[in-house]
Amino acid sequence: HGKENVDSRHNRGRGGDTTRFHTVNVAQPVRFSRKCPTGWHHYEGTASCYRVYLNGENYWDAVQTCQRVNGSLATFTADQELRFILAQEWDLEEKAFVRKDQRRFWVGYQYVITNRNHSLEGHWEVAYKGSSEVFLPPDPIFGTAMSEKENVLCAQLQCFHFPTLRHHGLHSWYAENCYEKSSFLCKRSQTCVDIKDNIVDEGYYFTPKGNDPCLSCTCHNGEPEMCVAALCERPQGCQQYRKDPKECCKFTCLDP
């Protein structure tokens, strides 16, 4: 993977003869910055992808939506991961359930109420077992739409729109009625994404998302490995040309 040099150069040898050579390609280290499908944000620390869905859904419907894209409602393994989430600009549109200055998302925790005396007592749990070790939120703010019969409330993470508040990590945790409608945050493992933004399964060959359509790699643990590059001849009879960014060895001649 490198830069094609289309100039023919001349070098005069010791005996006075002219040696003509043509540099076709120079090997370069291959770097890929795209490990998530379009619309998802990648975090290197957990090798995961994150996406906020704006269609207001109750908690249970949000769970199913995340599962359909091979993910789950987000839980967090460390403060650094949470800070990454809070710092993102999620490009939210104004909706009836989204205040202009703050945003609340369903995430993958539930608050189990154990005592309903003068104050609600309980504890946080991860909603779905099997996820890696996670930290649990602090005591929540209780939502307004609570029923006395509810023993389980669902977690909403509130973050703020204004950049100064966002970058300082200001946020709150809410324990809310699970049937309220809200935006929600899905999390999934990083994956192989090909040049046409298709997700590639483990072990398959693909051309990674990037600027070289002539690469063929194997997908391994969400990373492109064992990449092989095809080398293209320059188009004959054309001095100025442009490579097609999506198809290997396809050119557009720019000569008058």
UniProtKB/TrEMBL annotation:
Residues 1-20 are annotated as: Disordered. InterPro entries: C-type_lectin-like, C-type_lectin-like/link_sf, CTDL_fold, DGCR2-like_CTLD, IDD, VWF_dom. SUPFAM superfamilies: C-type lectin-like. Residues 45-187 form the C-type lectin domain. It holds the Pfam family Lectin_C. Signal peptide: none annotated. PROSITE patterns: C_TYPE_LECTIN_2. CDD domains: CLECT_DGCR2_like. One of its GO terms (cellular component) is membrane. This is IDD protein. It comes from Chloropsis hardwickii. The gene is Dgcr2.
